[in-house]
Amino acid sequence: MTTPSSRQIRIPEWNFSCTGCGDCCRRWHVAVSSSEKVRLQQLSWNDNDVIPPEITTTINTYEYLAHAPEGHCIYLEPETNQCKIHAKFGHAAKPIGCRVYPYNIATTFKDQYSVVGRFDCPAIRQNHGKPIAAAMPAIRRHIRDMGLNGGFDSFVLDGLEESHVKRIVRAFYDCLLSRNDLTADTKMIGAVLAVERLEKLGATFLCDLDDLEIFPSFFQRVALDCAHIKIRRLGLFERWRFLNLFISFMRRDEDIVGKGFASRCQRTAAIWQILFTTGNLIELGSEHPDADVDSMAVFDLPIENASEVDWSLYVELVKLRLQAFQFFGPANYDLSFYVGLSSLIFSFPLVIAAAKWSAIARDPQRCRVTPDDIDYAVGVIDHNLGRSALLGTAFFTTMIRQMTEVEVYARLVRRLIDAGGHRLPITTTT
Ligand code: SF4
């Protein structure tokens, strides 16, 4: 494959410079191909370089770099957070998964690509360092080395043309997500309502219309109509369905030590405890808070400081995914445009729930959400957004679609924020 030109690569404005925290080498397992494994096995180490004979581990039929019993990648020097491969053989000798991280690179329209930073990297969440666009030469090489091809086909485009997609995305960005006068929950509930209406109107709605005239008034109407959505009680089945999805976003199968029968039983028991009583997310992955939490408290305890909570980190994540077209097609389980948009918007209740879980783990009697809770929540949810084999199945994508029907979504968001207390700008009028 030839190296793509810079003009073929779309990189929304965001910054990244690695701080060397080592989180990625501790928390995530890096997938390696069989040819990469052979290449790594052929690296010549000295006697004082301690590299175990088994350099990979198999999880759900995929091969990953093995981790030491202490939990970090076998190639990480834990005291200095340095990669031994990088230190001895240079950056280019590392597996492609390590070289590309924390960028998410995907194919989009014909012969085009886009890049966003993964929010499971703390430096990305902090928007720290140099513009990602400054890494263009390396990104072009990554695209060539990854052998990316494909992109949006007519199925994922939902009958829309490239220009339609760009206009709709721009309108969501300018007329809804960037508005300073709307709360985050109004923006996201409005986004669900807008998806429903645009999908019904179809592509013909976009023909011959002037965006500057139509979209501001369309989204103004949507924002106003959010206040009139009928909010009923969140049913038990809806809670159970949401918790199921939440748990699936929290699972770090590759992060759990032990893959035998006993470990599986232990994990299943942990999932059932979270679903039905009081459970500990640490059983699903090491980055989660280590505390028993009553899962119903996530629905029943209101966020006490709801009006002060700043969700802008989350809104930035959504804006970046939109700008990069990384919410449908290859970047999101090959979902079609509108389904992908719904699935991106569904990450909001998941982020609220994760932030609340983190707050309740600190104090089981009350829920005061801090910036650290939001930082944790955005990182853990983005980790699996479009990147989990489990969540890519039809069962989960259908469930997400059902949870993003506007009335279901609105009552879920309302319930999570104020526990049905009707204290927010979005309140029922009936
Ligand atoms: S998690 Fe991000 S900042 Fe930390 S070492 Fe990895 S790439 Fe660097």
Descriptive overview:
This protein is mostly helical and 430 residues long. It is 46% helix and 7% strand. The protein contains 18 helices and nine strands. The strands form four sheets. It has a three-stranded mixed sheet with strand order 1-7-6, covered by helices on one side. A two-stranded antiparallel sheet has the order 2-3. Strands 4-5 form a two-stranded antiparallel ribbon. The longest helix is centred in the middle third of the chain and has 18 residues. The protein is globular, with a radius of gyration of 22 Å. Bound molecules: iron/sulfur cluster. Iron/sulfur cluster (SF4) binds next to helix 1 and helix 5.
Key words describing this protein structure:
globular, 430 residues, 2 domains, two-stranded antiparallel ribbon, binds iron/sulfur cluster, 7% strand
Structure, briefly:
The protein is mostly helical.
Question: What is the fold's blueprint, element by element?
Answer:
Layout: E1 9-10, H1 23-27, H2 34-41, E2 56-59, E3 62-65, E4 76-77, E5 82-83, H3 84-89, H4 96-100, E6 103-107, E7 113-117, H5 122-125, H6 136-146, H7 162-177, H8 184-201, H9 211-225, H10 236-250, H11 261-276, E8 278-279, E9 293-294, H12 297-300, H13 312-323, H14 337-345, H15 347-362, H16 371-384, H17 394-403, H18 406-418
Parallel strand pairs: 1-7
Antiparallel strand pairs: 2-3, 4-5, 6-7, 8-9
Helix pairs in contact: 7-9, 7-13, 8-9, 8-14, 8-18, 10-11, 10-17, 15-16, 15-18
The structure holds iron/sulfur cluster.
